[in-house]
Design brief:
The chain has two domains: 3-92, no CATH class; 102-140, no CATH class. By secondary structure, it is mainly alpha-helical. 79% of the residues lie in helices and 0% in strands.
């Protein structure tokens, strides 16, 4: 199995745990405050990884375009997390997580349009099933 697939599976498992831990952690507190705690932990862990692994040496390699794109990615992540946590506070984790994961469809569309990645029937059917699942969950 290729390394990126193993990384993706590990990511999937921990992303699933994240939602459950967050739901319990948000009891009796504002979701924005809870997100602040989570984000601080993330910042500290990533900072340690970059310092210990000497990855900070890449700092001089970043182009102005990369700065803009990484900052924009940070902004979009922040907006996504703010609304995810607000939805988690009031909603059912199973519904919120499923709707949130339908963002895969947006990612797929943008990967075809902007990154020129291949569009295959397999991807089309997979994205279709994701959308169908989301609509089944939110249909009243």
């Amino acid at each position: 199995m290729q390394t990126w697939i193993i990384y993706a599976i590990i990511s999937m498992v921990f992303a699933g745990l994240t939602s459950i831990l967050a739901k319990y952690g948000l009891a009796n507190i504002n979701p924005d405050f809870g997100l602040g705690i989570r984000t601080t932990v993330i910042f500290l862990i990533i900072t340690v990884i970059n310092i210990i692994g000497t990855k900070y040496k890449d700092f001089g390699l970043i182009t102005p375009r990369q700065w803009i794109l990484l900052i924009a990615s940070g902004i979009t992540t922040t907006v996504s997390w703010i609304f995810y946590y607000r939805a988690m506070k009031d909603g059912l984790v199973s519904y919120v997580a499923a709707i949130d994961k339908a963002s895969i469809v947006i990612t797929l569309l943008l990967s075809f349009l902007l990154l020129k990645e291949p569009f295959t029937p397999k991807i089309l059917f997979g994205a279709g099933f994701i959308l169908i699942g989301m609509f089944i969950l939110i249909w009243k």
